[in-house]
């Protein structure tokens, strides 16, 4: 009695689950191309037998690309420890650790050794560079060119081009530093210019002022 | 003080072992109980239903059924016109009592699942025309999720299973299946249209919150309120699975910055905030976790005296202690004491003050403390998949917990150097990278990574991809100089003056009343 589930509700439930995990690995939140992967992923989460290492690896690469969002650690919470012991997952976990602790030099060295895992997803390098720029922008007002170059792993002519692009499109400014060095002025935000932080502290909400209305009257 | 992570649920008496138990014997007090309860349900007398449910059921359980189950449903059916829905409700309570006081057999676990299926089918098909107390409806969802969790834990202990049990597990592989559980909760949310109702409620087109979910126009509150509490149920299930992001998403329709139907029932209020805070902690949104734990702990502190006689009192106290442990963890990773109210703070100092000092040190001992507090306070994680019945039977009931613990401690490790840099940034307003590197006994490139890690870890990304600052210290680097911007602890002058104005007015009114003789 009653062991069968209502059919249409079951479908509704699963559709919404797949949707939720799509969000979880939201590199392209509304890109339908990644849906089959994600549906598989949902199934694998509950049914380890059906898990395909290949697909999980690809999802993890995408999750790395979503940094600074916590997608990668969110995925690890869902993948059993036994699976995490596989060689290519171990590599990805090391890569994530370098990114989480902003050790970009080590990250790029390690990534270079593992192109076969990372190259399956187009745009990997650009995504990590974007993350590096994000962390640098939180931290620096002005950054020495060499430090930037190391973090985004671009040098020479490519770096010239990259900087040109950033100056034209993202409000970066190049400045002469001490000695021969060049400094890059990163765009102002409340994170690298804390004085821009809106002080919400002394805003008094209307409800509080209403307390003294009778007195003022 | 914190007990180790325990997996045992409730007392361990095998059900029905008491020789005296006769499932067909119905004491007069029970006859009267079921027939009255049945009548009040038919009359939609919510007040009386609530009294019988909260008080009489407990009293009778204590008096007659301390270590045996209640009479079987077949035995009581004649006193309630064999009413189908009432019998489903009775069995739901029957199993709940069994789970709380005895230890259910596998057969009973499966039967209880069947009963929930039948009960929820009836509700989903809209043939229910009752008005039930919120407390009862919450207990249904809460117990449904609890029994699911309990089943997963039970199934994962494979070593001690008999052949008979394994045969039953194989035969009834749909019982407490994770899809089934999620689908029922999801179906209740969708069929009840609760999300739309809450949206209209916000615009004043519905009276859901104002009426605490009850229907005063002769309708039924059952589907609506079950749908509402199912969102909290989904949050909890997803947390048990380690899917914190999806869990929080399920709760979104409920605005937890305001009181609502979820705050009407203390159990629901606590479950909501405990899981909400925990999920935020795991997502590194420490400020949000601290804020909500603080509010909840303050609320419990102020109101717990009113719950002393409630059956849930022990549960309330346990969750209270667990939330203090989670608050201690959150504050150790994100030292923003200004977010914590004074009463909560002094309780916290008393319970964890000394441990928190040691947790700041980030050595082996502090790792052990994070481990201890996390294990004591985390939800009872589950592995939802069925075991392999072929291989040598292994227990896997701790697997999910160990994974979450390991990943959490990994996060703590990544943050261990931040505590040192914090100490220096607090005392300098300007310092060169070279000088700070020397003080910290690291080289300059390493110091740069530590400072960037500080920024990354203290700036979470919200679901809308906006950066949320959890930082307790604001600084920036200009070439090779670190500039620390003192974040003045925001004194709330506005609020202070408003209070004083009201106070002064009060004093003046009092003075006016004084008549000098």
TrEMBL record, chain A:
One of its GO terms (biological process) is formation of cytoplasmic translation initiation complex. One of its GO terms (cellular component) is eukaryotic translation initiation factor 3 complex. Its main location: cytoplasm. Pfam families: CSN8_PSD8_EIF3K (PF10075). Residues 52-177 form the CSN8/PSMD8/EIF3K domain. It is found in: Cytoplasm. The keyword Protein biosynthesis applies. Keywords: Cytoplasm, Initiation factor, Protein biosynthesis. GO terms for molecular function: ribosome binding; RNA binding; translation initiation factor activity. Belongs to the eIF-3 subunit K family. Component of the eukaryotic translation initiation factor 3 (eIF-3) complex, which is involved in protein synthesis of a specialized repertoire of mRNAs and, together with other initiation factors, stimulates binding of mRNA and methionyl-tRNAi to the 40S ribosome. The eIF-3 complex specifically targets and initiates translation of a subset of mRNAs involved in cell proliferation. Component of the eukaryotic translation initiation factor 3 (eIF-3) complex. This is Eukaryotic translation initiation factor 3 subunit K. It comes from Escallonia rubra. The lineage of its organism: Eukaryota, Viridiplantae, Streptophyta, Embryophyta, Tracheophyta.
TrEMBL record, chain B:
Residues 1-20 are annotated as: Disordered. Residues 292-491 form the PCI domain. One of its GO terms (biological process) is formation of cytoplasmic translation initiation complex. Its main location: cytoplasm. Transmembrane segments: none annotated. It is found in: Cytoplasm. InterPro entries: eIF3l, PCI_dom. One of its GO terms (cellular component) is eukaryotic 48S preinitiation complex. One of its GO terms (molecular function) is translation initiation factor activity. PANTHER family: EUKARYOTIC TRANSLATION INITIATION FACTOR 3, EUKARYOTIC TRANSLATION INITIATION FACTOR 3 SUBUNIT L. Component of the eukaryotic translation initiation factor 3 (eIF-3) complex. Belongs to the eIF-3 subunit L family. This is Eukaryotic translation initiation factor 3 subunit L. It comes from Escallonia rubra.
């Amino acid at each position: 009695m009653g062991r069968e589930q209502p059919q249409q509700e079951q479908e509704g439930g699963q559709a919404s689950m797949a949707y939720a995990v799509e969000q979880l690995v939201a590199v392209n939140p509304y890109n339908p191309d990644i849906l089959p992967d994600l549906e598989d992923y949902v199934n694998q989460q509950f049914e380890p037998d059906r898990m395909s290492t290949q697909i999980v690896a690809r999802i993890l690469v995408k999750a790395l690309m979503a940094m600074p969002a916590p997608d990668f650690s969110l995925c690890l919470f869902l993948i059993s420890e036994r699976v995490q012991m596989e060689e290519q997952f171990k590599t990805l976990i090391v890569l994530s650790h370098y990114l989480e602790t902003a050790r970009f030099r080590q990250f790029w060295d390690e990534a270079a050794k593992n192109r076969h895992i990372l190259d399956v997803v187009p745009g990997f390098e650009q995504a990590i560079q974007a993350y590096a720029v994000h962390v640098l922008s939180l931290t620096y007002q002005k950054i020495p060119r060499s430090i930037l170059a190391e973090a985004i792993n671009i040098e020479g002519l490519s770096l010239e081009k990259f900087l040109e692009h950033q100056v034209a499109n993202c409000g970066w400014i190049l400045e002469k530093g001490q000695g021969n060095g060049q400094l890059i002025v990163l765009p102002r935000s409340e994170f690298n210019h804390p004085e821009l932080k809106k002080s919400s502290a002394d805003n008094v909400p209307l409800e509080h002022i209403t307390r003294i209305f009778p007195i003022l009257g | 003080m914190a007990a180790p992570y325990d997996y045992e649920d409730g007392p361990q008496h095998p059900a029905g072992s008491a020789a005296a138990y006769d499932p067909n014997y119905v004491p007069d007090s029970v006859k009267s109980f079921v027939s009255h309860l049945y009548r009040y349900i038919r009359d939609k007398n919510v007040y009386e239903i609530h009294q019988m449910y909260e008080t009489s059921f407990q009293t009778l359980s204590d008096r007659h059924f301390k270590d045996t189950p209640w009479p079987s449903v077949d035995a009581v059916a004649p006193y309630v016109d064999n009413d189908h829905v009432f019998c489903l409700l009775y069995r739901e309570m029957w199993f709940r009592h069994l789970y709380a006081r005895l230890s259910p057999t596998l057969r009973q676990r499966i039967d209880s699942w069947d009963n929930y299926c039948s009960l929820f089918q009836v509700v989903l098909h809209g043939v229910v025309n009752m008005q039930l107390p919120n407390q009862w409806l919450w207990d249904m969802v809460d117990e449904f999720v609890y029994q699911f969790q309990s089943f997963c834990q039970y199934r994962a202990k494979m070593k001690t299973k008999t052949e008979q049990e394994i045969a039953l597990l194989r035969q009834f592989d749909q019982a407490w299946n994770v899809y089934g559980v999620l689908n029922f909760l999801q179906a209740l949310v969708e069929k009840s249209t609760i999300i739309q109702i809450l949206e209209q409620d916000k615009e004043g087109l519905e009276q859901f919150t104002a009426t605490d979910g009850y229907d005063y126009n002769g309708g039924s509150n059952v589907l609506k309120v079950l749908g509402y509490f199912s969102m909290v149920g989904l949050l909890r299930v997803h947390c048990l699975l380690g899917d914190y992001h999806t869990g929080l998403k399920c709760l979104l329709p409920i605005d937890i910055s305001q009181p609502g139907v979820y705050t009407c029932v203390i159990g629901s209020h606590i479950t909501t905030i405990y899981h909400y805070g925990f999920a935020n902690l795991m997502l590194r949104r420490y400020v949000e976790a601290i804020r909500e734990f603080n509010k909840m702990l303050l609320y419990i502190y102020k109101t717990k005296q009113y719950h002393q006689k409630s059956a849930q009192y022990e549960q309330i106290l346990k969750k209270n202690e667990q939330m203090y442990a989670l608050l201690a963890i959150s504050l150790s990773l994100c030292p923003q004491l200004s977010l914590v109210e004074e009463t909560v703070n002094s309780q916290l100092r008393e319970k964890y003050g000394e441990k928190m000092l040691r947790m700041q040190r980030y050595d082996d001992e502090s790792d052990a403390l994070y481990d201890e507090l996390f294990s004591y306070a985390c939800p009872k994680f589950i592995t939802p998949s069925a075991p392999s019945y072929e291989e040598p039977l292994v227990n896997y009931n701790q697997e999910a917990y160990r994974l979450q613990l390991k990943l959490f401690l990994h996060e703590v490790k990544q943050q261990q150097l931040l505590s040192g840099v914090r100490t220096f940034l607090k005392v300098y307003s300007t310092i060169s990278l070279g000088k700070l590197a020397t003080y910290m006994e690291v080289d300059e490139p390493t110091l740069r990574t530590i400072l960037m890690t500080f920024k990354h870890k203290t700036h979470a990304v919200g679901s809308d991809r906006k950066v949320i600052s959890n930082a307790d210290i604001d600084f920036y680097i200009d070439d090779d100089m670190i500039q620390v911007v003192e974040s003045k602890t925001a004194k709330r002058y506005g609020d202070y003056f408003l209070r004083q104005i009201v106070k002064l007015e009060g004093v003046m009114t009092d003075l006016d009343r004084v008549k000098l003789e």
